[in-house]
Amino acid sequence: MKKILILLLISLAVAYAVPDPRGLILNLENGELCMNSVQCKSKCCHRTSGLSLARCADKAPENSECSATTLYGVYYKCPCERGLTCEVDKSIVGSITNTNFGICHDIGRSKE
Fold first, then answer.
1. Which value, in Å, is the radius of gyration of the alpha carbons in the chain?
2. Is 20 exposed, middle or buried (0-12, 13-18, 19+ CB in 10 A)?
3. Which CATH class, in words, describes the domain spanning 23-110?
4. Which residues pair with 85 in a beta bridge?
5. Rounded CA separation 110/100 (Å)
6. In terms of Cα–Cα distance, which of 82, 75, 79 is closest to 49?
């Protein structure tokens, strides 16, 4: 157990010693390959199909297609920008297959 802990600490030290660690694992720019939305600056890891590679992308603007936030962290349609809500009819099958799509709306504007 001590050996594993020491190896982990050495790995972290090497990662922090890199002059510009941006882009190794976190803070990825749009267009860079990702495995989860947490890695992206935009917080959206997007893929076009089940066989395509996922890349960081901008979040969905108002009146465009969106996905509700999922546990997977990879989306076929990015979640909405801050301040917008993805109005979607959620289903169990859609949650499993990541196909609960909707439209981004500004809830504040619809009350006016």
1. 18
2. exposed
3. mainly beta
4. 105
5. 22
6. 75
- Could you report the per-residue pLDDT of 46-80, keeping only the tens digit for each? 999 888 999 999 999 999 999 887 778 899 999 99
pLDDT tens readout for residues 94-103: 666 667 789 9
Amino acid identity of residue 51, one-letter, is L
Domain borders along the chain are 23-110
Instruction: Give 63's contacts (C-beta < 8 A, 6+ positions apart).
Output: 103, 104, 105
Give how far the C-alpha of residue 108 lies from the chain's centroid of Cα atoms, to the nearest Å: 25
Cβ-based neighbour number of residue 65 at 10 Å: 15
**What does residue 60 show for φ and ψ, rounded to 5 degrees?**
-75, 130
Q: Give Cα separations from 20 to 10, 12, 16, 42, 104 (angstroms).
A: 18, 14, 9, 19, 35
Residue position matching structure tokens 């009146």: 63
- Average pLDDT for the chain: 82
